[in-house]
Amino acid sequence: MADMPGYFRTCFQTGRLACLAMLVSGGIVLQILACALYNNWWPMLTVIMYVTLPMPLVFFAGSDTSSLYTESGSCWLNATKFLTGASTVGSIAIPIILKHAGVIGWGAMALELSSFFVFVLSILCYLGMNEDDGYRVKLSYGTAGFRADASLLESTVFRVGILAALRSLKTGSVIGLMITASHNQISDNGVKVADPSGGMLTQDWEPFADAIANAPDPRSLLQLITEFAKEEDIGFEGRQPPEVLLGRDTRPSGEPLLDAAKQGITSIVGAIGTDMGVVTTPQLHWMVRARNRGLEASESSYFHQLSSSFRCLMDLKPEGIRKNGDDNALVVDGADGVGGEKLEHFKKMLTGLCIEVRNRGEGMLNEGVGADYVQKEKVAPRGFGPADAGLRCASLDGDADRLVYFSVILNESNKIELVDGDKILSLYALFIKEQLSILNDGESNKNNDSYQAHLGVVQTAYANGASTDYLKEMGLEVVLTPTGVKYLHEQAAEFDIGIYFEANGHGTILFSEAYLCRLESTHKTLLSTSEGSAKQKAASRLLAVSQLINQAVGDALSGLLLVEVILQYMGWSICRWNELYHDLPSRQLKVKVGDRTAVVTANAETVAVQPVGIQEAINAEIAKYPRGRCFIRPSGTEDVVRVYAEATTQDAADALASSVARLVDQYLGSGSA
Question: Is the N-terminal amide bond of 611 cis, ω within 30° of 0?
Answer without folding.
Answer: yes
